[in-house]
Request: fold
Amino acid sequence: MRFPFLFILSLCIASFAHAQEGTDTLASFSDAEQEAEYQSFYVAEEDEETMGKAIVQGGSNGKVNTRPTNTNNNAPCKMWAILVADTYDENIGEDDAYDNLALNKELKAITQCLGIEVSITNITANRAYNKRNLANAISNLKPAQNDIVFFCFNGHGFRWDDQKDMYPNICMIGPEDDVYGNYVATTDIYNAIKAKGARLSVVITDCCNSKFGEYGPRQKENTLYSRTNTRVSKKRMQELFLGTKGVILATAAKPGEYAWSFDGTGSAFTQSFIAQLRKEASATQTESPNWQRLVDNAIESARRKTTSCENTQHGMRYMSISKK
Reply:
């Protein structure tokens, strides 16, 4: 099972430039060079620990972002990311580690291609994986008005029998914790991040949305799995991340459903999201980049990948997105 935290919301709340051709942030690289740089991150094999050390750039240092907060196209932009993965779970830990590494590499590649700053906080490992560290990471988000916040959870999730909220609770059990009290509502995380006021906020939970204590077995293989390495267009990536504003909330499973992961290839939803992100930014696409199409296609792709499982996942999403 990819698993009320009402007080974490109060804890969290209490405590790009729109890069264009010829701007300083991208002027030193041609389109072809930027696209090649994006693709280069998928060639070298890097272990999770090495990647984590290379990418985490002060995500939890609590420093206030003092860059300009105006929303015009020349304002600086930074991506703030929180990636939570239950990498030590005996059932899905290996798959969550695979997803976490893939997301780290994806976000670093995107931000380097766009020429913007990135700060990634990884909450994984053993003792680091707990609700307190999650609350601190959200509290330490200091986005300016033109910034991006990206959150993704890979782990166990569940719902209570009488739960009205359609979105799952995520399970944040450390090595010395029990379940009760150590979970967080997806909706609370979304509301806390939305309240930070970033231009673009993306919140993803890849976890089961099934009854507490129920979960499906890990799948041994996924014959529909694929990760495209289609050449991306820098202009399309700019439009997705720098030319839009709003909020996106997506989860892998509807109430009563499992979220499946596959041995050696990660989870159906996270890997579908990455593949659809690349497809949406592909240089071969003719329609304008579109977040709604991206997320809907990721949900549909994950559904197709899990049709042979005992409980097909369908996913859900909410978004309010517009052009910047």
User: Anything to note?
Assistant: The chain has a mean pLDDT of 78.
